[in-house]
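ARCHIVE CARD
Drawer: 12
Card no.: 0347
Subject: one protein chain, sequence and derived structure
Cross-reference: see card 0346
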Amino acid sequence: MTATETRPVARATRVGLGMAVLSAFTFGSSGPMAKALIESGWTSAAAVLVRIGGAALLLGAVALVVRRGRVRVSATSLRHLVVYGIVAMAGVQLAFFNAVRTLDVGVALLLEFTAPVLLVLWTALRTRTLPARATMLGAALTVVGLVLVLDLAGAGSVDPVGVAWGMLAAVCVAAFFVLSERQHDDLPPLVMAAGGTLVGAIVIALAGAIGLVPIAFTAVDVVLVGIETAWWVPALWLVAVSTAVAYLAGIGAVQRLGTRLSSFVGLTEVLFAVLTAWVLLSEVPGPRQVLGAIAIVGGIVVVRRSEARVVRDSAALLEPGVAP
């Protein structure tokens, strides 16, 4: 591969990394916003329904305008979209919600964010090859960092049912990366995000209707940065930023970086969640969380370099005159 040919690849990687970080930030900001609503009397499922349902309306309207009312998908793409909406949208939310019913939020988050490690294991099983040592080291560093950032030293008893829900959330997150990587000509990121949020909102609404999750709203003001704010401010942020922008950026990142690298960069969501909670809710991170942040960033750097080395080696093998 010549220097001229590698420039577009390097540019796509830089763009992909930027989109992955943007996705992590916007996803990470959802926790403090949702918590503000929940503390004012909303149920978690209500926050999720407004978040996904509002994003479905917003993204659907934008998709219709951008595509001039022509949004048609094949039967294969439609099946993919339905699975994506059920698993990657509604599945993650419902599984995590049920996990935090019996687990500390920190424990549930840790379980959910084992998704990148699950992806490494899945790739190893599917290809019957062990990951590079550097990738395994990066995975270990990120797991250690997550434990430190989430500060689980004071976690309460662990309920096995809650653990099962937490691991289901992790599987759904891993599925998000796998499903986002599969590209369909009639399913660009905007259409995929719009259709996925619509399917997810329908699933959440049905779950509430049959009593699987309680749904309740209030119009009470919330507290952000120590100031009373109208409830629609965090609700609007959840819809437009933490869902619409987050999923669009996340899908774009996966399509440029692949599942493994984008999933590890996505771990910075925990860091952004801690930072936004610090700013908005005055939840100051401790020394362990700072150390954990360093470990997570270090793990991502290690995995990034390992993945880049694999790509270079694969490209070298494809060069004319290079023996396999």
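Annotation on reverse: The CA atoms of residues 35 and 44 lie 8 Å apart. The longest strand covers residues 222-224.
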